[in-house]
Amino acid sequence: MLGLGRVGRSPGPLAADIRFSFPSVVYTYWHSSRQTIAEKVESMRKLTRGVVSPTAIALVMVMAAPLVNTTGTVLAAPSGDGTRVALSNALRRCDGSRIDGATPSQPAYATADTLIRTGANSVVADVQLVDTQSPGTHYDVGLIEVPRPSWSTCGPGDPGTAFGGLDTDAGGRGATTLQAGIQPGATGVWVVVQRPNPKSQTPTEYYTSDFVAPI
């Protein structure tokens, strides 16, 4: 998936999250704090009890669509070596469908892609990104399995997700691998890479899979 765009410029610890709820849209962001990963996950679980907008980290997306795939999302044919998917400058719902009209706060220059592979009851996403203009940059990365119920979220700690980070070297190149157990009923996955903006509800840059890769 070598998609075009640039993600993240300001390295920093992954920590607490903020989610904003719009009419049928849920935005999620990472921001810096001193919480430990355990504290972050615990706070996320507490917020998810009895509220429509539970916490999630590293994503910008709307609420998932029903289990039936009626969004017109493209599915690629699987291959023995996995499915390579380009990442492009687009926001997506939890089901992988594109959110039209979204605009990043700055141009996207990175080139990125992911290779989706499956193993024994697990799915793996090998993510690569290149942005020679932004060496030493941190990127937030997530893997989302679909389909998902309309009421579900797809942030860290949610079933069928995996999250991590990617940091570019002095040449602006970086790579990371995410792995998650395949949930019952899951038929595909998509990947998100983004750089949050502490001054805005929308990430500075964001890149997502051009299509849902079958698993």
Taking pLDDT < 50 over at least 5 consecutive residues as the criterion, the unreliable ranges are 1-75
* Tally of domains: 1
Rg, rounded, reads 16 Å
User: What are the secondary-structure elements, in order, as H or E?
Assistant: EEEHEEEEEEEEEEEE
Q: What tags apply to this protein structure?
A:
about 5% helix; about 220 residues; ten-stranded antiparallel β-sheet
In short:
This protein has 215 residues and is mostly beta strands. 6% of the residues lie in helices and 39% in strands. It has one domain (3-214).
Could you explain the architecture of this structure?
With 215 residues, the chain is mainly β. The chain has one domain. Helices cover 6% and strands 39% of the residues. It contains one helix and 15 strands, in the order βββαββββββββββββ. Strands 1, 5, 8, 9, 10, 11, 12, 13, 14 and 15 form a ten-stranded antiparallel sheet that branches. The protein has a three-stranded antiparallel sheet with strand order 2-3-4, with no helix packed on it. Strands 6-7 form a two-stranded antiparallel ribbon. The longest helix has 12 residues, at 37-48. The chain is globular and about 40 Å long. The protein starts with a strand and ends with a strand. The model is unreliable at 1-75 (pLDDT under 50).
Architecture blueprint of SSEs:
Layout: E1 3-4, E2 17-22, E3 25-30, H1 37-48, E4 60-62, E5 83-88, E6 91-92, E7 98-99, E8 111-118, E9 122-130, E10 138-146, E11 161-167, E12 173-181, E13 188-195, E14 205-209, E15 213-214
